[in-house]
Amino acid sequence: MGLQEFIAMGKHGFYVWWSYGVTFLSIALLFVLFAWYKKQLINKVKSFKRESAPKARSIKTEQISD
Amino acid sequence: MANSSKSFWRWFHQLGSPKWFYQKSAKWLPWLWAITAILFVFGLYFSLYASPVDYQQGNSVRIMYIHVPAAVLSMVGYLAMAVCAVIGLVWKMKMSFMAMRAIAPIGAVFTFICLFTGSMWGIPTWGTWWEWDARMTSELVLLFLYLGFIALHSSFSDRNKADRSAAILAIVGAINVPIIYGSVKWWNTLHQAYSVTKKGAIDPQMQTPLFIMIGAFYLLFVILVIVRLRLEVINRETKSKWLQEELA
Amino acid sequence: MFVTLLKRELMLARRNWVAILIPLFFFIMVVSLFPFAVSPEAEFLQQIAPGVIWVAALLATLLSLDLFYRGDYQDGSLEQLLIMASPTQVAFSKVLAHWLVTGLPLVLVSPLLAGLMHLNYAPDRELLDPNHTPVMMLSLLLGTPTLCLLGAVGMSLSLGASRNGMLVAVMILPLYVPILIFGSAVITASLANSGYNAQLAILGAILLFALVLTPFAIGRALKVAVS
């Protein structure tokens, strides 16, 4: 069985490859979104740390938005 | 016996600690990734190449090897969410609500995958990308349930309220899923005009790749949940010292 | 205690009687739009009547939920009620009042819609005079309480949320699917001159099931909302 034949899958290749493609693409997209979200969160933690560190004596109104 | 149940409860208790989870899960992830990758190599080899072609459906039967695992996980995911909701409401476990929140978008994506692959299978088999088939319709309703959960959880400014409200919805939804499935199935048999090819007993040569793929999808789901749950820990423990040290 | 709570809800509803009538008008108007949108032919209308009447009843119930929960939540009386009585009692009184004030009138006004949709149309009048109206009323009688119960779950969950109008619909509509299926199936079966007892029984079973479980969920959700 040649590569051509494998990709064509007897007229059903289009549907099979689209299914597999979209499946793994949407899972990859989830990971990308998570990575992007993680970046945001780390920035949030760092900015919180910066804000709280110098004035450790007066921790009264730290407002962290989600 | 008493000893083992004691250690179980300790483990249960530890799992409830965000710090313990965050530190341990970093060590679990590489192993999980390795096993998942191996399973996918075998699973994809079998499902795309080394499995028989169905005499009726032709090569489009290969879509089943991702469609069925996605369907399984879309339902397991909702059930897991409801279990987390119960644990969170009864034992007030912090991590439980976080896990519930983490599962929701992932479960929704798996439901979408199930619907998409089902449609792709439908074009050559049914001649249309959408058929009001009982299983497909139930998956669609399940997707709506996931979206409703996410919508509710994200409409609160108070996280505590969001968790508890969404947990109640998850439980009510999970109780309803079998009722919805049963009624949709009944409704489907009523309208026999839209008849659907019945799947008979599955060929053993198709069974092996299917089981490998279900295993691979399960692990992938677990990895996704752990990754998302770690983010949720960062999000909710911003103010704790251990996390700042961890990320420094 | 329960009677006091129920009386209170009904008294509030009586004071706000115009707002209570709006869902009823909505119910009638939505149904009467269909002949314009599709066709005024009796045969055709009769075919779609079960679905149209049930979807309209469903939407009317959903729209009327706000009246029974929003006000009490906003002016703080919900908190007082939850101190006075158990959450389940409060939940139950609210659902019952909601159904008595909107669900029951819906059932009573539905023969009018059956007429508008030509539900009892028969091409051959001599053969027999079909009367599907009582069956339709029975299906609504058994189905609308479940709609109220499930809707109350969604409504009380969304009370503390920032956006809520559409939110309740998005949460609850998927849960309405079984009731919609069996509710309209009762009428369809009657139109086909076949037995509809099984469908009615299932509708009743769902109602009993919801009656036992949802008040706890509603009560719990109300407690979360005021916490």
Concise synopsis of the structure shown:
Chain A is mainly alpha-helical.
Calculate the mean pLDDT score of chain A and round it: 79
Largest sheet of chain A: none
- Rg of chain A (C-alpha, Å): 24 Å
Tell the overall outline of chain A.
Answer: rod-shaped
Helix-strand category of chain C: mainly alpha
SSE order of chain A in H/E notation?
HH
Determine the fraction of residues in helical runs of chain C and give it as a percent range: over 70%
Number of helices of chain C: 8
Along the chain, the helix and strand elements of chain C come as HHHHHHHH
Q: How many structural domains are formed by the residues of chain C?
A: 1
- What structural class do helix, strand and pairing data of chain A support? mainly alpha
Total DSSP E strands of chain A: 0
List the topology elements.
The complex is a heterotrimer of chains A (66), B (248) and C (227).
Chain A: H1 3-8, H2 13-52
Chain B: H1 2-15, H2 18-48, H3 64-91, H4 94-126, H5 134-153, H6 159-190, H7 204-236, H8 241-247
Helix pairs in contact in B: 2-7, 3-4, 3-6, 3-7, 4-5, 4-7, 5-6
Chain C: H1 2-15, H2 17-37, H3 42-74, H4 77-84, H5 87-116, H6 133-158, H7 165-191, H8 197-226
Essential attributes:
heterotrimer, B: 248 residues, mainly alpha, 8 helices, 80% helix, C: 227 residues, 0% strand
Can you describe what's shown?
The complex is a heterotrimer of chains A (66), B (248) and C (227). Chain A contains two helices and no strands. Chain A has helices at residues 3-8, 13-52. Helices cover 80% and strands 0% of the residues of chain B. Chain B has one domain (65-247). In chain B, helix 2 runs antiparallel to helix 7, helix 3 (64-91) runs antiparallel to helix 4 and helix 3 (64-91) runs parallel beside helix 7. Chain C is 83% helix and 0% strand. The model of chain C has no long low-confidence stretch (mean pLDDT 90). At the A-B interface, helix 2 of A face helix 3, helix 4, helix 7 and helix 8 of B.
